[in-house]
TrEMBL record:
Pfam families: Phe_tRNA-synt_N, tRNA-synt_2d. Residues 113-331 form the Aminoacyl-transfer RNA synthetases class-II family profile domain. Keywords: Aminoacyl-tRNA synthetase, ATP-binding, Cytoplasm, Ligase, Magnesium, Metal-binding, Nucleotide-binding, Protein biosynthesis. It comes from Anaerococcus martiniensis. This is Phenylalanine--tRNA ligase alpha subunit. Mg(2+) binds at residue 247. Its EC number is 6.1.1.20. Tetramer of two alpha and two beta subunits. Binds 2 magnesium ions per tetramer. Belongs to the class-II aminoacyl-tRNA synthetase family. Phe-tRNA synthetase alpha subunit type 1 subfamily. InterPro entries: aa-tRNA-synth_II, aa-tRNA-synth_II/BPL/LPL, Phe-tRNA-synth_IIc_asu, Phe-tRNA_ligase_II_N, Phe_tRNA_ligase_alpha1_bac, Phenylalanyl-tRNA_Synthase, tRNA-bd_arm. The keyword Protein biosynthesis applies. It catalyses: tRNA(Phe) + L-phenylalanine + ATP = L-phenylalanyl-tRNA(Phe) + AMP + diphosphate + H(+).
């Protein structure tokens, strides 16, 4: 029965099988245990010999079991390691993964540039009050932008903001000085949709208020920004303008980023981009409306057309491309 046990152990393919063999031979009702019990029935002189033989055989079976068990465990480990290795050459089905829309990529890029220049990025609501959007921004009572034909009103006092300039008021009213912030987001105007107009578009508002803030700070900020965004060879052109909330006010164009000033169809051969932003020195009335001493503090502000920046940067001739969700367009960026 030793050879039989050894053969069975040899053939065993799993630890479970091995355990069954152990029970068959060495278990309480196993073959060897039975033999031991039967020793008492043998003649006295044969007993020691039989006992010795049975014990030796049991030990041999035990050893064989232990050896085989070790072997099986090693094999199991090997199999497991083999299973867990990653086949880096394996072929797999590639899935389309989404990404930020071009306008959101542009917003993030703008915010990063201003963050790197030390500006706080502030979030604000798309629905705001007439007070924040017009009154405190020094807009005259008869300003055309106040009319319901230009701006979407929700009630007499609440509207969809037509510009991000309302964020200037919100931040100044918090009462912490100095201020150095940008705030970007959606704005809404009652405009017909065409290649350059959309009833919803994006602006980035910038506001700096401190002692001794001057027009030179505004120009330096804008020039650093435009070079970061489009490259070192960009220049800005300042044109006088009028806004109720700044004095003096200006509009700014940049070198056409497509022809870099040489003249091309995109810029109508002028070498200059379309108007990118409006800005100026914060009007003292605006500072005072927010409880800021306009004798002590001055500020500059500007509002940037984010969609225009995206159009100019990526050479788009139609603002609708940004909002149509045409996959052929989206996949290019
Ligand atoms: N709010 C103006 C607009 O929507 C843009 C603007 C002009 C923002 C001058 C400013 C500013 O902060 O100082 O066209």
């Amino acid at each position: 029965s030793l050879t039989k046990a050894q053969n069975e152990i040899e053939a065993a393919k799993s630890l479970d099988e091995l355990e069954k063999i152990r029970i068959t031979y060495l278990g309480k009702k196993g073959v060897m245990t039975d033999l031991k019990k039967n020793i008492s029935k043998l003649p006295n002189e044969e007993k020691p010999m039989a006992g010795k033989l049975i014990n030796e055989t049991s030990t041999q079976i035990e050893n064989a079991l232990a050896e085989k068990s070790e072997l099986l465990k090693k094999e199991l480990l090997k199999e497991k390691i083999a299973e867990e290795t990653i086949d880096v050459t394996a072929h797999f089905e590639k899935h389309d993964s989404g990404h930020l829309a071009l306008i959101n990529q542009t917003l993030e890029e703008l915010e990063t540039i201003f963050q790197n220049m030390g500006f706080d990025v502030v979030e604000g609501p798309e629905i705001d009050t007439v007070k924040n959007v017009f009154d405190d921004l020094n807009s005259p009572a008869d300003h055309p932008a106040r009319s319901t034909s230009d701006t979407f009103y929700i009630t007499d006092d609440i509207l969809l903001r037509p510009h991000t300039s309302s964020m200037q008021i919100r931040v100044m009213e918090e009462g912490k000085l100095p201020i150095k912030m940008v705030s970007a987001g959606r704005v809404f105007r009652n405009d017909e949709v065409d290649a350059t107009h959309s009833p919803m578009f994006h602006q980035l508002e910038c506001l700096v208020v401190d002692e001794n803030v001057s027009m030179a700070n505004l120009k330096a900020t804008l020039e650093t920004f435009i070079k970061e965004m489009f490259g070192d060879d960009m220049e800005l052109r300042y044109r006088p303008h009028h806004f109720p909330f700044t004095e003096p006010s200006l509009e700014v164009d940049a070198t056409c980023p497509i022809c870099r000033g040489e003249g091309c169809p995109a810029c109508g051969n002028t070498g200059w981009s379309m108007e990118l932003l409006g800005g100026g020195m914060v009007h003292p009335n605006v500072l005072e409306a927010c409880g800021i001493d306009s004798e002590k503090y001055t500020g500059f502000a500007f509002g940037l057309g984010v969609d225009r920046i995206a159009m100019v940067k990526y050479g788009l001739d139609d603002i609708r491309l940004l909002y149509d969700n045409d996959k052929r367009f989206l996949e290019q960026f």
